[in-house]
């Protein structure tokens, strides 16, 4: 043990006595043992740092990228999982909407049914003993999903006859909406009123693509 201590003390003294300016790599074999060990440790440290920079650093970047991708995929999975959970409800709502659209299409007149619809409006006026002044079509208006067919209607009669006439139009088997009502007395008519209104019916645009 004493010998080993003396040996290390000698090596330490040799390391302290080294003139660092006179060191030559070509004479490294004759360097003190501690100096060799120190240089070997430094070389190992440099090698480890280079390995860290070249290999581990690249793997670390790959790991960070993989974690980001994992986070994104997890977010996509959660979103799609939520959408999948809502899918039965959305299908049910879609079926309800399709059923409502089918019922609406069923009450829309076709282009060929417009003349008979005018006849039905005229019949309603006659049935309520109104005097027909005007029932005529305006030019059609094409919307995004349907074609709008406006109608000008002007009739004369008493208040109750006009009210029943408006109710009969609303109860037709084909959809007719009523707009822009104008109700005014007719001069020298014994209390008769004149009803002017704009009616609209609609047809499916897919009928005439």
From TrEMBL:
Keywords: Membrane, Transmembrane, Transmembrane helix. This is Type IV pilus assembly protein PilO. GO terms for biological process: type IV pilus assembly; type IV pilus-dependent motility. It comes from the Bacteria. Gene3D superfamilies: 3.30.70.60. The lineage of its organism: Bacteria, Pseudomonadati, Pseudomonadota, Gammaproteobacteria, Oceanospirillales. It comes from Vreelandella subterranea. The chain crosses the membrane at residues 33-55.
